[in-house]
Amino acid sequence: MYDILTLNKISQIGLKELDSKYTVSDACENPDGIIVRSAAMHEFDFSEKTLAVARAGAGVNNIPVDKCTEKGIVVFNTPGANANAVKELVIAGLMLSSRRVAAAYDWCKTLKGEGENVGKLVEKGKSQFAGPEILGKTLGVVGLGAIGRLVAVAANNLGMKIVGYDPYFNDALKGELPADTEYVDSLDAIYEKSDYITLHLPCTSETKGMINAETIAKMKDGARILNFARGELVKGADMAEAVTSGKIGAYVTDFPSDEVIGVENVTALPHLGASTPESEENCAYMAAVEIREYLEKGNIKNSVNFPNIELDVEGERVAVIHHNALNVMNDVLGAFMSAGIETKGFNSKAKGDYAYTLVAADSIPDAVINALKGNDDIIKVRKI
Asked: What positions carry a catalytic annotation?
């Protein structure tokens, strides 16, 4: 039996993937696994029993990944599960940034009570909400992951020219992007060429505050910025000043901050990117499957802190999380040899300073596990 803790409301579509071997609760004290959406976990007191955390979404800023890694807890995310939902809102953001729809909508509310004068007032006042079409304009896509690629295709279908930047982009994925996409090797090239810029990258120590007064100065006058990735990518005060001065034509963000709320030509939305029933179901399903595969088989897919590993063989398994040291793999196989056990499958990969080894055999005695527990480089070992 496995105990699963949910820290947010998780779609039942996903939780159905956890069968009778699982007890799922929002009040579990010593969970084997945790499924979370947006709940902050940086002060969370992890149980020694906890083996995995699955984030029903892409970003893991709310999870203390380094702390989990040190404890041998595998952290999963669900890349691509909410990509379509975010893409659709980004396309809406393109329109909102151009046509001043939100401001026009608010203005129309002020005409209530004007009676027969409404029509005349509309014709007189509509010019203040004029804005350009996106047809033929250049969209700079920063980050060509699952969401960025979908946005590029949709915008291209609406007649936009696409310029893409992603230092980690795999050329094999070019077939998923418009054939006439222009790929550039620097953010400066994006800033120089783009009428619109959309951000689709994680917030790291390198990317935090990347849109600031200095980088904004490199952009076209009147450029429009869309941020449906992470609020911390943009320095709010610098953006507010740039929009107020007219250097930036409009800013649409899914991450309101005090600096930008209420600024004219800023449209701030309350983090609606993945707020669709389809997205929540997709994320919950993927998170549940990741947890199940790891707890029951030791397989890892879509982990942000340990390498992807899968063994497609029958039998018992030993899963070993350890520091990235060659002697550990030798020690693991040596423990099997010392016990006279023939292995049926073996896989070991590293990710940075940490590694994961998975070994299968027909039957694995406790002597193998006990032999490994005394190794200082081994963080966690378990038999499945």
From this structure: 230, 259, 271
Collect the ranges in the chain with pLDDT lower than 50: none
Query: In this prediction, what percent of the chain has a pLDDT beyond 70?
Result: 100
Taking the C-alpha atoms of residue 91 and residue 188, their distance in angstroms, rounded to an integer, is 24
> Strand pairing partners for 347?
358
Please, are residues 343 and 360 in contact by the beta-carbon 8 Å criterion? yes
Residue owning tokens 């040291």? 325
Sequence-ordered list of residues with C-beta below 8 angstroms from that of 77, at least 6 positions apart, any chain = 54, 55, 57, 58, 59, 60, 302, 304
Question: Nearest 5 degrees, angle CA 137-CA 138-CA 140?
Answer: 150
Domains of the chain: 1-82+277-305 (3.40.50.720), 84-268 (3.40.50.720), 307-377 (3.30.70.260)
pLDDT of residue 14: 87
Question: Cα–Cα distance between 252 and 62 in angstroms, integer?
Answer: 23
> Does the model's pTM come out above 0.85?
no
pLDDT at 59: 84
Bridge partners (DSSP) of residue 161 are: 138
Both tokens of 339, joined, read: 């016990």
